[in-house]
């Protein structure tokens, strides 16, 4: 292994500066990086956030998402969308989502 290897990059330690508790499974936006809290993280505490892997996450019901399409996080709605404008690239749709579907399987990273 390379002598400068740090880690696989599947998780990141994040300090919760939101002022509220973050529950395991909640979406965490760290600037341009989107992840999922792997543990409950109290305000001002640090915890692990998954930034790679496939997660089932809340999605907009105003658009279908095709398998393999880029998926973006809409911070205002708190949901994932196929719309790039004003949203943060989060990953790729692992499976397709119908228009009325409320959840999307997204491969983060």
Q: Count the strands?
A: 9
The parts where pLDDT drops under 50 for at least 5 residues are none
Lateral arrangement of strands in the main beta sheet:
5-9-8-6-7
**Rg, Å, rounded:** 14 Å
User: Helix share of residues?
Assistant: under 10%
Name the beta content range: 35-45%
- Work out the helix count: 0
Q: Between the first and last Cα atoms, what is the distance in angstroms?
A: 22 Å
- The helix/strand class is mainly beta
Shape: globular
Query: What series of H and E elements makes up the topology?
Result: EEEEEEEEE
Average residue-wise pLDDT: 97
Biggest sheet statistics: 5 strands, antiparallel
Question: Any overview of this molecule?
Answer:
The structure is a single chain. With 109 residues, this protein is mainly β. Helices cover 0% and strands 41% of the residues. The protein has no helices and 9 strands. It has strands at 11-15, 27-30, 33-37, 46-50, 53-58, 70-74, 79-81, 88-93, 103-108. The strands form 2 sheets. Strands 5-9-8-6-7 form a 5-stranded antiparallel beta sheet, with no helix packed on it. A 4-stranded antiparallel beta sheet has the order 1-4-3-2, with no helix packed on it. The radius of gyration is 14 Å and the shape is globular. The two termini are 22 Å apart.
């Amino acid at each position: 292994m390379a002598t400068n290897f740090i880690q696989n990059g599947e998780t990141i330690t994040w300090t919760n500066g939101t002022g509220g508790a973050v529950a395991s499974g909640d979406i965490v936006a760290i600037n341009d990086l989107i992840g999922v809290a792997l543990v409950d993280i109290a305000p001002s505490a640090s915890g692990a956030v998954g930034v790679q892997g496939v997660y089932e996450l809340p999605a907009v019901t105003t658009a279908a998402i095709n398998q393999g399409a880029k998926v973006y996080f809409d911070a205002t709605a708190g949901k994932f969308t196929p719309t790039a404008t004003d949203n943060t690239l989060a990953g790729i749709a692992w499976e397709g989502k119908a228009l009325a579907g409320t959840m999307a399987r997204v491969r983060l990273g």
